Amino acid sequence: MQRLRKALYDHIATYSLLALLAAMMLGWALLALVFLPLLPRHRRTAAARRGIMAGLRAFAWALTLSGAYKLDLRAIDALRGGPPVILAPNHPTLIDAILILARHPNFACVLKPQLMGNFFLGVSARFARYIRSGPPRRMIKEAVEDLHRGSILLLFPEGTRTTRAPLNPLTASVGVIAKHARMPVQVAVIETDSPYLSKGWSPFRVPSLPITYRVRLGRRFDPPTDVPVFMEELERELRTQLAGAPQSGWLGELRPAQGSQLMHTR
């Protein structure tokens, strides 16, 4: 009976929170379309970013109040009031950006083009002047300009969600942007004990709740002069910080499962 109650709770909480997130994104997109065009451009960007932060922070509260997540995101608050920096976290699950963006009012986020074209995400992302991940030259130029305006740039160096323990090979974008912008890179370490919303996990597949999720800060690198050397140091730092992380177990199980799935689809 206890297992049945827990399974019922897991289903209700998962689908209710997904519905809440969708409703909040749709509501903010509609409000943004109506009110943000009335503001001057610089105020429009600031208002869009603060609106995104407020909405996602409310969603993070809902995750905690529902008992679905045990969150520890306080480390990100140390970036408030500080100088512009590139925040470079590992990327185990789809919810990473949502939870990080909930903690700071002036994040510029690098997003894949398909997300920028999504109505739920794209409207507010464009008003907030988030940055498309391609083409690379345009992405680098816009990221550098945004950093020089004082933003915090959120950029996942893996480029996609992690599929192997402790992390995927890194892309050089973070090093190139840091070099051109002459900005430091702050490592962030995400730890979670659940594969929910990891690569290949359907949003409608119910996880076992509660999920423990923590973000902490690692080393802060000075602006690089040699990008390849910097990328080696960054990867080494992330691997060191992720040694023994809770996701190491399920990432080790995820990779063989994905390989088996690919074999069946060939």
Please provide a written account of the structure.
Helix content is 50%, strand content 14%. By secondary structure, it is α/β, with parallel strands linked by helices. Strands 1-7-6-2-5-3-4 form a 7-stranded mixed sheet, with helices on both faces. Helix 1 packs antiparallel against helix 2, helix 1 (2-35) crosses helix 5 and helix 6 packs across helix 7. The termini are far apart.
Brief summary:
By secondary structure, the chain is of the alpha/beta class. Helices cover 50% and strands 14% of the residues.
Descriptive tags:
single chain; 266 residues; alpha/beta; seven-stranded mixed β-sheet; 9 helices; 50% helix
Secondary structure: elements and pairs:
Elements: H1 2-35, H2 41-65, E1 69-72, E2 86-89, H3 96-101, E3 107-111, H4 113-116, H5 119-127, E4 131-132, H6 136-148, E5 152-154, H7 173-181, E6 185-192, E7 211-221, H8 227-241, H9 247-265
Parallel strand pairs: 1-7, 2-5, 2-6, 3-4, 3-5
Antiparallel strand pairs: 6-7
Helix pairs in contact: 1-2, 1-5, 6-7, 7-8
Termini distance? 42 Å
Radius of gyration: 19 Å
In the predicted model, the low-confidence regions spanning at least 5 consecutive residues are 256-266
| Shape, per Cα inertia axes | globular
